[in-house]
What we know:
It is built from 17 helices and six strands. It is α/β, with parallel strands linked by helices. It has two domains: about 1-90, no CATH class; about 100-410, 3-Layer(aba) Sandwich (Rossmann fold), CATH 3.40.50. Strands 1-5-6-4-3-2 form a six-stranded parallel sheet, with helices on both faces. The protein starts with a helix and ends in a 20-residue tail after the last helix.
Amino acid sequence: MNGSIQEHKEIINLLGGGKKLTERLKLLSNETINEKTVYSWVRQGIPDKWKVAVSRCLLEDNIDIRNYKNLLPPGLHIDNLFSANNSVKIFSSSKVLKTDESNLQNIIDKDQLLTLYEMMIKIRRFEEKVGQLYSMGLIGGFCHLYIGQEGVISGIEMLADNNDCFITGYRCHAHMVTRGEPMVNIFSELLGNSSGSSKGKGGSMHMFRKENNFFGGHGIVGAQVPIGTGIAFANKYKNKKSVTFTFFGDGAVNQGQVYEAFNMAALWQLPIIYIIENNQYGMGTSVERASAMNELFRRGESFGIKGYEVDGMDPLSIYGNLQNICSKIREKPEPILIEAKTYRYRGHSMSDPGKYRTREEVQETRENRDPIERIRALLLSKKYITEDKIKDLDKRIREEVTEAAELAREKNLPDNEDLYRDIYKELDS
């Protein structure tokens, strides 16, 4: 224990003392931490969630972290951490992006802010209704809700134009809503009806909106990343000034095909933005336990792909920080990697009770970081809308969602013959 105490004391002193270390950790993590907490580490030890950030500070000061073996997070080999973090020095353009609250007025106007708020409310109420229908036994199969993550797709949607392409994994309901698919069609698909977006054959995980360049909904973890890369290649080949937004999660980021796609995107300088929706947990485990290098926005550095971390719980951070990046890519194509730090309030899927995290953790995020509440508070502070108007808006959207769900329940299941259609391509004899 004494050796550990001495080690932690030494680390804090080497990094300029508690006050300076606190400031550095805030910049690196985008999380609040105070000096008292830092000094408590002398006796209690450095928590796992802060070990990589402290290691980064040591590396930036040219201090060999291999001298401090107690600094390693569980399951991470010292050589891996050293080499992974050393790559930061090579591609120093990767960084954490923040939104200057004082410049919000310049980032987005009143109408855009109201549109953003309405978009997120619609996603949340839609997903809540989906959860209700699933609990009633009306939706079968796997079902992954987006509640808590609304800020990511909404912020991106505000940036997109008609020529841009979207592709994501199995947590795709929200993307269908923001891409303009009528809610009755999405509900119909979830219920397995023939009027559904994919004729009732795709279900929750396989939805498409061809008219608005939304290419799915993919059930295989990480499979959408090479497909999105192929779409970006096609658009560049056709000289289209479009960006392909390719979404995947923190669980998919460790898949091999993701890095094969990164290599091709960098080699051919494709107009693509890879968006890691880091909701902190895969199916049953945290990012820290699953990833040796959990600064996910740096995962493209070995290919020369610049990466940025943004606050995914703040749609303005996404919108404001990615505006210039999008504009540059349209004119001069290159791949970019974005890690949107977000949080899902429900389990990985409807069958996941989420017992690997505490209720207090979820509640704390809901109360202090909810993306909808953040924009609501801004609207009220700017006097763009009143409390009564917000209540009216929420009531209207709830009614729209309920009506769409009820209409979908009246639709018919596919005919038996339809089960055998669209399986194989018919060839002329």
